[in-house]
Amino acid sequence: MATTDQFRRRVRAFAEQMCLEIGEVSVADEECWLAAIEQMAAEVGDAVATTLIERQAAAHVEAAATEEANCPQCGKRGRYQGDRQRELISRRGSVAISEPEYFCPCCRKAFFPDDRSDRC
Ligand SMILES: [Zn+2]
Predict the structure, then answer these.
(1) pLDDT over 90, % of the chain
(2) Mean pLDDT estimate for the chain
(3) How far is Cα 20 from Cα 4, in angstroms, rounded to an integer?
(4) CA distance 25 to 39
(5) What is the pLDDT of residue 98?
(6) Which pTM value belongs to this model?
(7) Which of 78, 54, 55, 57 is nearest to 66 (CA)?
(8) 94 forms bridges with which residues in the sheet?
(9) 77 CA → ligand 1 middle, Å
(10) How many whole angstroms separate alpha carbon 62 and alpha carbon 85?
(11) How many angstroms does the Cα of residue 105 sit away from the middle of ligand 1?
């Protein structure tokens, strides 16, 4: 998604609201006030980014989930076992990802069809 002017204005309005809620940034002794402000801004940015990643990933998994999927090893149908949760380290911090888990009765092991798509 390319950001549009309208979207950037909404992000700016959100950031201005966050600024009002945060108030004055506390500056530790021997710390540059600008570095303290930048650190706070980076933490807010990371929180927004990881939330966006988690929500977008959840929508992707939900759209791709089916009752059955083919085993990557033998090609036979596997059965949906539910979703597994795992933690990934993104460039902006830790994110919780949910993905469908399937079981192949032929190979007698679980597999995760989305594993290939999250590594490209
Ligand atoms: Zn199999």
Answers:
(1) 59
(2) 87
(3) 25
(4) 10
(5) 87
(6) 0.69
(7) 78
(8) 89
(9) 8
(10) 13
(11) 7
Q: How far is the CA of 120 from the centre of ligand 1 (A)?
A: 23
Using the mean position of ligand 1's atoms as its centre, give its distance from the Cα of residue 87 in Å. Answer: 25
The count of other CB atoms within 10 Å of the CB of residue 107 is 14
In the reported structure, the alpha carbon of residue 14 is separated from the centroid of ligand 1 by a whole-number distance in angstroms of 48
State in Å: Cα 71 to ligand 1 middle. Answer: 5
Q: Would you place residue 114 in the very low, low, confident or very high pLDDT band (cuts 50, 70, 90)?
A: low
pLDDT at 120: 47
Q: At 101, is the secondary structure helix, strand, or coil?
A: strand
56 three-state secondary structure: helix
- Taking the domains of the chain in order of start, what are their residue ranges? 33-119
Report which residue type is found at 10.
Answer: R
Q: How far is the CA of 94 from the centre of ligand 1 (A)?
A: 31
73 Cα: distance to centroid of ligand 1 (angstroms): 5
